[in-house]
Automatic annotation (TrEMBL):
Top-level taxon: Bacteria
Name of the protein this chain belongs to: D-inositol 3-phosphate glycosyltransferase
Keyword tags: Glycosyltransferase, Transferase
Domain Glycosyltransferase subfamily 4-like N-terminal: 80-186
PANTHER family, A to Z: SULFOQUINOVOSYL TRANSFERASE SQD2
Low complexity composition-biased segments: 1-26
Gene3D superfamilies: Glycogen Phosphorylase B (3.40.50.2000)
InterPro entries: Glyco_trans_1, Glyco_trans_4-like_N, Glycosyltransferase_grp1
Stored Pfam families: Glyco_transf_4 (PF13439), Glycos_transf_1 (PF00534)
Residues covered by the Glycosyl transferase family domain: 197-333
Lineage: Bacteria, Bacillati, Actinomycetota, Actinomycetes, Micrococcales
Organism: Brachybacterium endophyticum
């Protein structure tokens, strides 16, 4: 999104920060043209607080990757990133559902600074993840909704996610902006020799067929069907990158991974260059997820022009059309496959047969080559595009250097006036708690 910090879920992509001294990718994706440079020098230079705090626990998670993308976007705009809440700052970015997030929001408001709250999670994508997740999912939604309401503006990665958190049960009254987490298309690019290097690294023959996926080992990510597809295609090597703290894995997933066929490989976390090599060298990227708010690993695969077989779920319906940008396949809902009952096993088997047939067609070249279209889709959310959109949000929300009582901070005071009530005479936030 490598070792696994036992205190937090692991990253979707298995990619650590590429900005450090040992990075194999670029340190930043700043403006490249003279026009962009002049534009960044002409605008007020903001001090943007992106605090470490408990967010450091998410360093190897999808949220951690999104935070790193934000830092790079902010810096590419010519703004300064600060990490201490005790430093001077003009605006704060908050990203995690950890307990220090509402405290940091309160601190920013005490200093009359606006809070930009990133909504990476929903109740829907929390379900069918870790042991006990479904039981506490409604409480998790109440918690994140309360946190999101601490923001002066809320930012979420896709229109689909925006639609979910706009529902009354979230009770968000602030503006909700859509801003992709983005992808570094300069780094995530197919290179000559990737296929040979990947097979050599995995100890496979040069002509071996390889199908990959990346993510947490959970029912929601489709790992149960993925393993069954591998069982149905023994002549193909299936590689799943990324791993999860064993204490969080459900019994069904743990059992499936332990009994996976010999053509299934689980390398765990890998260096970013190794992951990029896998995207560029695999014969297909098979992403059977059942729910996402975006899917950074999918963007990375598309950027590397990997042939993609993607689950046909609502978030990707309009964004990535079947047969135009990716090839899709129907996947069963998590509740139909995520148990050890004979009925669930039967559903998994039926789904695996259908997915294997579609995947075989992709591997055999019977389906249209959409790699160029995938690359264009990734370029549409390249880090340069994300940075420009972020600046647009700053301007729309009137975030300026030295912001105190102007802009969204002033609107927050107005929006919390007693006259703003829900249609039923209750505060929208309180109504959402029910």
């Amino acid at each position: 999104m490598g070792s696994d910090p036992s205190s937090v879920p692991d990253s979707d992509s298995g990619s650590p920060d590429r900005s450090g001294p040992e990075s194999s990718g670029p340190a930043s994706t700043g403006p490249e043209s003279a026009g962009q440079t002049r534009a960044s020098s002409a605008r007020p230079r903001l001090r943007v607080l992106i605090p470490k705090g408990l967010a450091a626990l998410a360093g190897q998670s999808g949220i951690g990757e999104a935070i790193r993308h934000q830092r790079r976007a902010v810096e590419s705009l010519g703004h300064e990133v600060v990490t201490s809440p005790f430093a001077d700052f003009d605006v704060v970015h908050l990203n995690t559902p950890f307990p220090d997030t509402p405290l940091l929001a309160a601190w920013a408001h005490l200093r009359r600074r606006p809070v930009m709250m990133w909504a990476h999670s929903t109740e829907e994508d929390f379900r069918d993840s870790f042991t006990g997740a479904n039981r506490i999912a409604p409480w998790f939604r109440r918690w994140i909704a309360w946190i999101y309401r601490r923001g002066d503006a809320v930012i979420t990665p896709t229109p689909y996610a925006q639609g979910l958190i706009s529902r009354p049960r979230y009770g968000i009254r602030r503006p909700i902006h859509v801003l992709s987490n983005g992808v570094d298309t300069t780094f995530f690019r197919r290179r000559e020799g990737d296929a040979a290097a990947l097979r050599e690294r995995l100890g496979l023959p040069a002509d071996a067929r390889v199908v990959m996926s990346v993510g947490l080992q959970m029912v929601r990510k489709g790992i149960l069907e993925w393993i069954e597809v591998a069982r149905a295609l023994p002549e193909v090597t299936f590689v799943w990158y990324g791993r999860t703290d064993p204490r969080l894995i459900t019994e069904e997933v743990s059992s499936a991974v332990a009994s996976a066929p010999s053509n299934c490989l689980f390398p765990g976390f890998v260096a970013p260059e190794q992951l990029r090599e896998a995207y560029g060298g695999a014969d297909a990227f098979c992403f059977l997820t059942k729910e996402e708010t975006e899917g950074i690993v999918l963007l990375e695969a598309l950027s590397c022009e990997a042939p993609v077989l993607l689950s046909d779920i609502p978030i990707y319906s309009d964004w990535l059309p079947d047969g135009e940008v990716v090839h899709k396949v129907a996947v069963p809902p998590a509740k139909a496959v995520g148990s050890k009952t004979p009925g669930a096993a039967h559903v998994r088997g039926q789904a695996a047969e259908r997915i294997a047939g579609r995947l075989r067609s992709l591997l055999d070249g019977e389906l249209t080559d959409l790699s160029a279209a995938g690359r264009r889709a990734a370029e549409a959310v390249d880090m340069h595009e994300v940075a420009a959109s972020l600046q647009g949000i700053y301007e729309a929300e009137r975030v300026t250097e030295g912001t105190k009582s102007t802009g969204i901070s002033a609107r927050r005071r107005a929006s919390t006036a007693p006259s703003l009530r829900s249609p039923h005479g209750q505060d929208a936030g309180r109504a959402a708690e029910r």
